[in-house]
Amino acid sequence: MLSGISPTSRGQSPAPVRVWLVLCAMSMLQFFIAVDVTVVNIALPSIGAEYGVGGHSLTWVVIGYTITGGGLLMLGGRLGDLVGRRRTLLAGTTLFGAASLLAGLAPSFQVLVVARLLQGAGEAVALPAAMATIVLLFPEGRRRSRALSVWAAVASCGLVLGFALSGIITAYLGWRWIFLISVPFIVVVVVAALLLVPADRSVPRGQVRLDLPGSFLLTAGPLLFVYAVVEAGEPGANPWLILGALAGAVAAAAGFVRVESRSQNPLVPMAFFADRSRVRANLTTMVLSGALSTSFLLFTFYLQDRLGIGPLGAGLTMLPLAVALIAASMLVPHLLELWGARVCVMIGLACAAGAMVAVAVVTVLGGGAAWLLPAMLLIAAGMGFGLVGLQYIAVSGTTDEDAGIASGVQRAADQLGGATGVAVYVGIGFAPTLHAGDPFLVAAVLAIAGLVVGAVVIGRSPAPVKADA
Asked: CA–CA separation, 403 vs 416, rounded Å?
């Protein structure tokens, strides 16, 4: 272990410079993992053309990564608490990098899908450990709120820049480089973790026990639900297959609760949910992430399908959203200290709802690309205020023993909420077999309804949370 860095559990504070270097390394990891959530969207037609695969199969390149990552995140969080955050961080980051290399070199579509599933697994193992490392290195209060603001802003910028990078890289280098470009940076993160992150305590043999049935059920439930929603919008879909998938999703959810309540080593101890603020924060994270993820696709579809702008132009048109996110990341920490996390969350939800209203208006009136700018700015504010405030509430009061679980649950809520929101809002909105209305308008209205529910949920939180110095 390097001098100046020692576990916070021993009562010593790591050197400030080293702490911020760790934050930079963890943020780099967060950035490329976030990029991989959206970077494939604009490149999907090129991938399909090379492999001769249709649009229906291509959706699993996106959904497989997102849901596998989200479903296994709590296993990753638990793994970090049991075997050590540094070990888990190194294992997950290495897996993510290797899977990125495999995706870029994939000789067939099947290998690409497997690589995307492995990327999701790598994310699930690495990200809870990375976030828990930040939470434990930065004391609760002003420093932690600023660190989490940086973390959230980097993630948000990664999600948005993924669209622009996808268009640029696909146009000039080819779609394979959307995966290969991250590999050298992942190597940098691994080296930084080896040098800067505090070493883990030794783990007695036989102490590590993981809840594999719970992990399976948590992943299977969302996958079955999304499959049912996607298939329901397909012409000629088998209704019995759809009903069976929905029944399986419900059974998986019920089975997960049953397994967790009886397991000696649950993924998420039921006592964790005794904190109502955490529960409400994670539920609100799901609906907010669903709306934010939906907005990205609505922007992309409107620019390309309605206005006929090419992939490169569509990606570059969304750059103001990334710039606005950077500005929001600089403003939110100060307001978080002044107003408290719950107020910031309510502002974020209101901004996201306003963005959806703006999308609906633009699509009804048939406005040009510039008309989407207010919606993009509101989405940036919704991300900056909403996600940072929710993250702060979700990890408040954590200790060395449960920081990984809290981080894993919050991240899983973010990712599963985003994937499920896209499946429901976009799936229903763009499915001609389910309605006859304008798809953009239907998707926007559904997202607004979800955000209203989120506002009610977080508004009933027991007490406001402030990021006091």
From this structure: 20
At residue 357, does pLDDT exceed 60? yes
More confidently predicted of 24 and 101: 101
pLDDT, one tens digit per residue, over 41-85 is 777 778 888 998 765 567 678 777 888 888 887 787 778 777 888
Contacts 24+ apart (CB under 8 A), 107-113: 108/51, 109/47, 109/51, 109/53, 109/57, 112/47, 112/51, 112/61, 113/60, 113/61, 113/64
Tokens 């009562």 belong to residue: 11
CB contact at 8 A, 118 and 444: no
Number of residues assigned to the chain: 469
Query: Which pLDDT score, from 0 to 100, does residue 6 have?
Result: 40
245, 227 contact by CB (below 8 A) = yes
Q: Burial, 324: exposed, middle or buried (Cβ in 10 Å; 0-12, 13-18, 19+)? A: buried
- Dihedral angle, C-alpha 326, 129, 69, 219, nearest 10 °: -140
pTM of the entire structure? 0.75
HSE value, Cβ hemisphere, 13 Å, CA-based, for 97: 17
